[in-house]
Design brief:
The protein is α+β, with helices and mostly antiparallel strands. It has two domains: about 80 residues; about 230 residues, Bira Bifunctional Protein, Domain 2 (BirA Bifunctional Protein, domain 2), CATH 3.30.930. It has a seven-stranded mixed sheet with strand order 1-4-5-9-8-7-6, sandwiched between helices. Strands 2-3 form a two-stranded antiparallel sheet. Helix 1 packs parallel to helix 4, helix 2 runs antiparallel to helix 4 and helix 6 packs across helix 11. It is rod-shaped and about 120 Å long.
Length: about 350
């Protein structure tokens, strides 16, 4: 038996050296260590026929050869899986790479930030349909039938009396019809206008409008609210100014400017050298709007405001072309992967 073990060791070594794949190694394992017909298994079963004084020594020799064969097979299998042997540079022992799960769109990031600020100021969030009636989109907002915004070349119509909303102000009308004052809410969402596509305009974009209605709500409340909002968004050094302007649904109305967030009012390319950026419209709710929803303008007052979320995102992230937000280029969107979702 001792000579058989020596011959078996040599035979195993030669077979192992010629193995080129896992299938060959498995065949070698079965041939030498298989439980039913393995060569070494056969020798182990013959230990019982040896003289009693030879069994312990031969048993140790057989066990030693079995461990040697197990170790040789394991080493050969590991060598087959190594990057050098595989030739593809893959090391299966290295930790895996997590897949890219994507990230929030920059407009979504900005919308959530705006919502968070207004919620902290006590505002709720209201929503409404994107296909609106002419009453909610125009008439209830004191926009007369001959107003240019109601022409086909300015608005998208979806049938008689139906229009893709041109602002989120219809949400204000629906909310006032449903609820009694006092009210404080914002209405973010997508709106649609027949604008030519260029770096500053797209026919679909996002707005956030807001409203506060109650007794003795004043223009001072509007100015204070918006000043706090813009400083929360861009920092305490931001200045806010109001310029008289006309909007059919507010009286008085105002254009709101903020000091340039890039040059802080000194003048640069972004603000056209003026130090100011026109950012939104606002004003005190027109009495005709209150009457359209059944409110008594002699008993309540309120203010309303609206801003473009796309434009704020463009300003916040230093984007020069609004069209980038709509192209879904992963190289562009990937820049916002580390922005904190709010």
């Amino acid at each position: 038996m001792e000579q058989e073990l020596k011959d078996l060791r040599v035979e195993f070594s030669n077979a192992l050296a010629s193995a080129r794949d896992e299938a060959a190694l498995e065949a070698i394992r079965i041939r030498f260590l298989g439980q039913k017909s393995g060569c070494l298994t056969h020798l182990m079963r013959g230990l019982g026929r040896l003289p009693a004084d030879q069994r312990p020594r031969m048993g140790q020799t057989v066990n030693s050869l079995k461990k040697e064969m197990d170790a040789g097979l394991a080493a050969a299998l590991a060598a087959l899986a190594s990057p050098e042997r595989r030739g593809d540079g893959l090391d299966p022992t290295l930790p895996g790479c997590a897949p890219n799960l994507g990230q929030l769109h920059p407009i979504t990031l900005v919308r959530r930030e705006l919502e968070e600020i207004f919620i902290s100021l006590g505002y709720s969030i209201e929503e409404g349909p994107e296909v609106e009636t002419e009453f909610h989109n125009f008439e209830a907002l004191n926009i007369p039938p001959d107003h240019p915004a109601r022409d086909d070349h300015d608005s998208f119509y979806a049938g008689p009396g139906r229009v893709l909303r041109t602002h989120t102000s219809p949400v204000q009308i629906r909310t006032m019809q449903r609820c009694q004052p006092p009210l404080k809410f914002i209405a973010p969402g997508m709106v649609f206008r027949r604008d030519a596509i260029d770096p500053n305009h797209t026919p679909a974009f996002f707005q956030l409008e807001g409203m506060a209605v109650g007794e003795r709500v004043s223009l001072a409340d509007l100015k204070g609210t918006l000043t706090v909002f813009w400083r929360r968004l861009f920092g305490d050094r931001i200045q806010v100014r109001f310029r008289p302007s006309y909007f059919p649904f507010v009286e008085p109305g105002a254009e709101v400017d903020i000091s340039c967030i890039l040059c802080l009012g000194k003048g640069c390319r972004a603000c056209g050298g003026s130090g100011w950026i026109e950012i939104m419209g606002a004003g005190m709710v027109h009495p005709a709007v209150f009457r359209a929803v059944g409110y008594d303008p002699d008993r309540v007052s309120g203010f309303a405001f609206g801003m473009g979320i796309d434009r704020i995102a463009k300003l916040k992230y230093g984007i020069e072309d609004l069209r980038l937000f709509w192209e879904n280029d992963l190289r562009f969107l990937g820049q916002f992967r580390n922005e904190s979702p709010r």
